[in-house]
Design goal:
Largest sheet: 4 strands, mixed
Number of domains: 2
Bound molecules: iron/sulfur cluster
Number of helices: 6
Strand order of the largest sheet: 3-1-7-8
CATH architecture of the largest domain: 3-Layer(aba) Sandwich
Structural class: alpha/beta
C-alpha cells in the first residue's frame, strides 16, 4: 500500500483560497489509510468550517475514483464532474494528483496528502511501516525477503553498519535494525552464507522513470 498522511487544513485552505468551486476527489485504490468518498465528504465539511473562519464560502463537490492513477478510469469518473469546477483537491497519493494534472490541464490539481512510502500494516494494527522504495533491482532473494534499502536507515546493501544496539538502529532507537532482522531471518533459514556475498553499489539508473509493460 502507498502510505500517506493528510496535510494540515491550513495548508489545504491556502491552496484553494483563490477559488470557490472545488472538486474533492477521493481514491479507492492503494492509498492507506483509505481516502475514498467518505473521507472526501469529511474533508469538505472541515474545509467549509475552516473557510468560514477565514470569511470565505466554498462550493464543494465530492467524488471518488477506483484508482486515480488510471487514466481511463479517472477520465470517465471525473470528466463529467469537473465542468464548472475551478480547482480539484486530490486525496490520492502523489501519483494520483499528477494524473489529474495531466488529464485536466485547465484547472489546478492540489495534493491533500503527503506521500511517504510503500509500506505494510504492522502486526500492531494502525502502524504502517516502510517496506519498499521501488529501487528497480530487487535483491531480497539474498536477504531473507527483508528489504535493506527500506528497512536499514542508511539503506546499506552490505550491512550491518556496526552501530546497532539491542537489535535497534543507531539512528532511531524505536526502529528495528534492518540488518539484524536480515541476519536473524537468514540464520533461521540456514542461509547465513548469503551475508558473505558482496552486493555492488545501487545502480540508480534502474530506478528508471519509465518501464515497458
Ligand atoms: S530491494 Fe528494491 S525493489 Fe526490492 S523491496 Fe527493497 S526497495 Fe523494493
Ligand atoms: S543500525 Fe542497522 S538499520 Fe541502523 S543504519 Fe546501522 S545497519 Fe542500518
Amino acid at each position: 500500500m502507498i502510505v500517506t498522511t493528510q496535510k494540515p487544513l491550513d495548508e489545504i485552505l491556502d491552496f484553494i483560497s483563490p477559488y470557490t468551486n472545488v472538486l474533492i476527489a477521493g481514491c479507492d485504490g492503494c492509498t492507506q489509510p483509505p481516502r475514498g468518498l467518505r473521507e472526501a465528504k469529511t474533508l469538505s465539511q472541515l474545509l467549509e468550517l475552516g473557510g468560514k473562519l477565514r470569511n470565505k464560502d466554498f462550493n464543494f463537490k465530492t467524488t471518488t475514483t477506483a484508482k486515480q492513477c488510471d487514466y481511463y478510469l479517472t477520465t470517465s469518473a471525473l470528466k463529467p464532474q469537473i465542468e464548472e469546477m475551478e480547482a480539484v483537491l486530490s486525496l490520492a497519493c502523489g501519483i494520483g494528483v499528477q494524473t489529474l494534472a495531466e488529464l485536466f490541464t485547465e484547472i489546478p490539481a492540489f495534493p491533500v496528502q503527503n506521500t511517504h512510502f510503500m509500506g505494510a500494516e504492522e502486526r500492531e494494527a494502525g502502524i504502517l511501516e516502510e517496506r519498499c522504495v521501488g529501487c528497480g533491482d530487487c535483491l531480497i532473494a539474498l536477504t531473507g525477503g527483508i528489504c535493506p534499502v527500506a528497512r536499514c536507515s542508511k539503506g546499506l546493501l552490505n550491512g550491518a553498519c556496526g552501530g546497532s544496539k539491542d537489535g535497534k538502529c543507531e539512528l532511531n532507537s524505536e526502529r528495528d535494525c534492518g540488518w539484524i532482522l536480515i541476519y536473524e531471518q537468514l540464520k533461521k533459514q540456514g542461509k547465513l552464507q548469503n551475508l558473505k556475498e558482496f552486493r555492488p553499489p545501487r545502480d540508480y539508473q534502474l530506478s528508471a522513470w519509465r518501464v515497458t509493460t
